[in-house]
């Protein structure tokens, strides 16, 4: 059974067919790239999988369970985390506190226990803080843990989003353009982190990315959308050579950049 399965997933906005009967499966520990021109349905797919939108037709299955009508927080509890194309950090909070927010789904002590400061709540908070610092070390932000997030660069904020997502202990991580706007050095750092998520933590990853060098180099499999329709799927080499993909998205220059 696939960890994530989209069956005939369709989304209509008024008269606009944003996603048309998408079939896509993601296995545990797999990295799947999702590419296509702007407006091809990639972000709509992510919003449907994460519960921000509800399908017009079709199903989203996590471990065989239909989650298409669940709230985002309920889907997150099943082990699905995501980042966003537009960075969503809390600028006035410290870098450490931003990561701590990712732990809230896994804390067992209730609101009253936390408010009362019970030993169980204190122990959970201490462990969450320790794990948050370990995650900041993993992404290279331990030196700025106590700094307000508003002082971070774009690259550092993307790394912070990864750390916060990892704090939720996901089994499936949806990454929306993690390399967007980054310097070559930070792109390489993001790529290395994504590989470590899969290799060391067994996390399945679905990756939306316009930097072809990244998506072609890191994905086990790539699916290509065009006007909401999946026009190709397969290993990077096969997708790179597919005439439909060349015509719809990559182009000759894009293909050379992805080599």
Q: Mind explaining what this structure looks like?
A:
By secondary structure, the chain is of the alpha/beta class. The chain has a domain at 4-87 and 160-180 and 201-257: Rossmann fold, CATH 3.40.50. Helices cover 42% and strands 23% of the residues. It has a six-stranded mixed β-sheet, with helices on both faces. The radius of gyration is 19 Å and the shape is globular. Residues 110-116 and 252-259 have low confidence and may be disordered.
Summarize the structure.
With 259 residues, the protein is α/β, with parallel strands linked by helices. The protein has helices spanning 42-49, 72-77, 95-101, 111-116, 119-139, 154-167, 184-201, 212-218, 236-241, 243-257; strands at 4-13, 16-26, 31-35, 57-62, 65-66, 80-82, 172-176, 204-208, 221-226, 229-234.
